[in-house]
């Protein structure tokens, strides 16, 4: 009797209820069908399971596209979405088929309950099978005019050996009649060229693009199609090659374009979760400012922010947390966070964003270790702040991404030239080597098309200055790194800074640092 009561109590423990609705996911699939060409099918695969150490795997993180179209968070699965209604052998109509991880009571005792067929049907799908039946029940796909897909990345060194998703990929290739030598990565990049007019502006730009791809991978450099594209002489040759690829039925570029086009515009339901993730992140940054002391470690500062994330309901961080003191802040993706004492009068660059129900924030704040900026730190900080302010003034629907980049870079460059840190504007990338903005959503660098801003896009605005020790300038600037990064919602006639709660203006940062933190009286000795 006692065991029964305990089980009943456990079943009633509260869990979050504010996930995306099944109506949202169905709406996204319907929107996708509107974009798909006649007689086409799209395959959306789950992410592979990745091994952490020996017989322990990393906590599973779903392919954001599969989550977007379904809400399903388990591995070893594939969703087929058809443009047009299909008929099964019994005459029943369907326009999607979902092959999912099979229920397994023995494994569920170790890794948790699986939804199985019935659980996925409750999510709004009617045609659902176990993944092990993909070869048997999925239709012959080779007769479709267009077959689009994106295969999971096979990072062989840490893929769990039993991962079934690659078995599903191989079955899919056979059902699609795909040639054995069809390289999906190469063909995707080639077929996507038509989406980017800048690459087609001249043969020199196009050949340069493919040469850069070839330089990264032997797989690309030895591919016959890439070799042809690296050596084209005029636009007529390019047109002929693109016409050849467009005629193929296997088209990964359609998948790429459709998911970018859809995911770059956030729906009302998505905005609720984005606001939550960003709000949590802003609280975390404020708390780090309150807590900062010269004798703190980078890891301690990281832990304070991440504690706030968990306290407020965020399941993860959207990317590895950056907590760089002094010269470490000049390393753009510094994640070691292993300095045991950040030191006096050092700048702390913290780039940490919470992930809430799959949606991630991306917020950076930079503040002094003793709560007060030095004269040099103030000058660098204010240049970055003014660059951000200049970008905010032009944010609205229709603004080209190129204008954002130019605006930020001009302010930073002019500011550094005035201080004598740069000799002239030709050095404009020396201490500001990255871009200013990227899309934000289910991925920290979310999918989107970098053309012009549109309402309900969310982008980052993150100018920065990084002056490493040993730089060709006065030593007083060495080791100063500043990035200020906010998340902005684009509107028809303007914008909203969703991360505005995190202190940003220099005076507000110092005021926040003067406040008490919940860790001030913590004694763990």
TrEMBL record:
Residues 20-158 form the Aminopeptidase P N-terminal domain. InterPro entries: Aminopep_P_N, Creatin/AminoP/Spt16_N, Creatinase/aminopeptidase-like, Pept_M24, X-Pro_dipept-like. Its cofactor is Mn(2+). The keyword Nuclease does not apply. It is an enzyme of class 3 (hydrolase). CDD domains: Prolidase. It catalyses: Release of any N-terminal amino acid, including proline, that is linked to proline, even from a dipeptide or tripeptide. Its EC number is 3.4.11.9. It comes from the Bacteria. Gene3D superfamilies: Creatinase/methionine aminopeptidase superfamily (3.90.230.10), Creatinase/prolidase N-terminal domain (3.40.350.10). Keywords: Hydrolase, Manganese, Metal-binding. SMART domains: AMP_N. One of its GO terms (molecular function) is manganese ion binding. GO terms for biological process: proteolysis. Belongs to the peptidase M24B family. PANTHER family: XAA-PRO AMINOPEPTIDASE 3. This is Xaa-Pro aminopeptidase. It comes from Dyadobacter luticola.
């Amino acid at each position: 009797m006692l065991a029964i009561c305990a089980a009943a109590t456990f079943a009633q423990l509260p869990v979050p209820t504010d996930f995306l609705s099944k109506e949202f996911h169905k709406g996204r699939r319907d929107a996708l069908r509107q974009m798909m060409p006649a007689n086409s099918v799209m395959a959306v695969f789950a992410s592979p399971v990745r091994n952490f150490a020996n017989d322990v795997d990393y906590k599973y993180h779903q392919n954001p596209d599969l989550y977007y179209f379904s809400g399903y968070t388990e591995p070893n699965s594939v969703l087929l979405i058809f443009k047009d209604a299909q008929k099964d052998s019994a005459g029943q109509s369907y326009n999607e088929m979902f092959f999912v991880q099979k229920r397994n009571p023995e494994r569920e005792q170790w890794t948790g309950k699986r939804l199985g067929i019935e659980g996925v049907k409750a999510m709004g799908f009617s045609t659902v099978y176990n993944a092990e039946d993909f070869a048997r029940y999925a239709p012959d796909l080779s007769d479709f005019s267009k077959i689009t897909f994106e295969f999971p990345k096979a990072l062989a060194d840490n893929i769990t050996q039993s991962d079934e998703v690659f078995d599903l990929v191989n079955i899919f290739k056979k059902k699609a009649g795909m040639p054995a030598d069809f390289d999906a990565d190469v063909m995707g990049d080639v077929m996507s060229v038509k989406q980017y007019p800048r690459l087609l502006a001249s043969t020199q730009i196009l050949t340069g693009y493919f040469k850069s791809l070839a330089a990264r991978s032997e797989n690309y450099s030895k591919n016959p199609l890439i070799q042809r594209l690296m050596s084209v002489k005029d636009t007529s040759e390019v047109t002929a090659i693109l016409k050849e690829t467009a005629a193929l039925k296997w088209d990964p570029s359609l998948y790429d374009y459709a998911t970018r086009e859809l995911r770059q515009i956030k729906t009302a339901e998505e905005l609720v979760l984005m606001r939550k993730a960003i709000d949590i992140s802003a609280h975390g940054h404020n708390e780090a400012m309150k807590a900062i002391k010269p004798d703190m470690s980078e890891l301690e500062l990281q832990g304070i922010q991440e504690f706030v994330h968990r306290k407020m309901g965020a399941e993860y961080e959207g990317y590895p947390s950056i907590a760089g003191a002094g010269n470490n802040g000049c390393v753009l993706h510094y994640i070691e966070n292993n300095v045991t004492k950040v030191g006096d009068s050092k700048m702390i660059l913290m780039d940490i964003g919470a992930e809430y129900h799959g949606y991630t924030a991306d917020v950076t704040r930079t503040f002094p270790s003793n709560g007060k900026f030095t004269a040099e730190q103030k000058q660098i900080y204010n240049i970055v702040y003014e660059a951000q302010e200049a970008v905010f003034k032009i944010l609205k629907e229709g603004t080209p991404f190129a204008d954002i980049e130019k605006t930020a870079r001009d302010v930073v460059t002019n500011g550094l030239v005035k201080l004598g840190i740069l000799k002239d504007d030709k050095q404009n990338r020396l201490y500001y080597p990255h871009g200013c903005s990227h899309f934000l959503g289910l991925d920290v660098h979310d999918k989107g098309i970098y053309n012009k801003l549109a309402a309900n896009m969310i982008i980052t605005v993150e100018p920065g200055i990084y002056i490493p020790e040993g730089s060709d300038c006065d030593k007083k600037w060495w080791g100063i790194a500043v990035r200020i990064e906010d998340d902005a919602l684009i509107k028809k006639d303007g914008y909203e800074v969703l991360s505005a709660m995190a202190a940003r203006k220099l005076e507000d940062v110092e005021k926040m640092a003067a406040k008490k933190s919940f860790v001030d009286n913590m004694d763990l000795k």
